[in-house]
TrEMBL record:
This is Response regulatory domain-containing protein. Pfam families: Response_reg. CDD domains: REC. Residues 12-88 form the Response regulatory domain. InterPro entries: CheY-like_superfamily (IPR011006), Sig_transdc_resp-reg_receiver (IPR001789). One of its GO terms (biological process) is phosphorelay signal transduction system.
Length: 123
């Protein structure tokens, strides 16, 4: 469950080539009213096709088509203030998604707080 202090919902981008893993995360976060979209292309985080910049990027470390860590490092070079989390879900289950969402909730709470300071994770 999201922190009750969170005032608005986040725009979350999942970069993952595994549709099942991404779907579990998307369903779990969407139930908490976040806008979630999936992509296999990091360019969607850097240059989104629409005007909605992501508030948070989730990157699958275990992707078959790209390196999660290389993607993270590249993203942090191009958009250093954009919060990003690298995750691994080898056997996606609902309970696994709930665990990862607790970590995401903590990051989203900080992102969505009224603080003027922009969080930067992993730099």
């Amino acid at each position: 469950m999201l922190n009750p202090e969170v005032k608005k919902m986040a725009n979350v981008l999942i970069i993952d080539d595994n549709k099942t893993t991404a779907a579990i995360l998307k369903i779990t976060l969407s139930r908490q009213l976040h806008h979630v979209r999936r992509s296999e292309d990091i360019r969607d985080a850097i240059y989104p096709a629409d005007s909605s910049q992501p508030d948070l990027v989730l990157i699958n470390q275990a992707a078959k088509n790209f390196s999660g860590w290389k993607t993270f490092n590249y993203l942090k070079q191009i958009r250093p203030s954009l919060p990003a989390i690298v995750y691994v879900l080898e056997h996606p289950t609902t309970s696994g998604a709930q665990w990862i969402c607790k970590v995401v909730d903590a990051v989203l709470s900080e992102i969505m707080s009224d603080s003027e300071e922009t969080p930067c994770f992993g730099t």
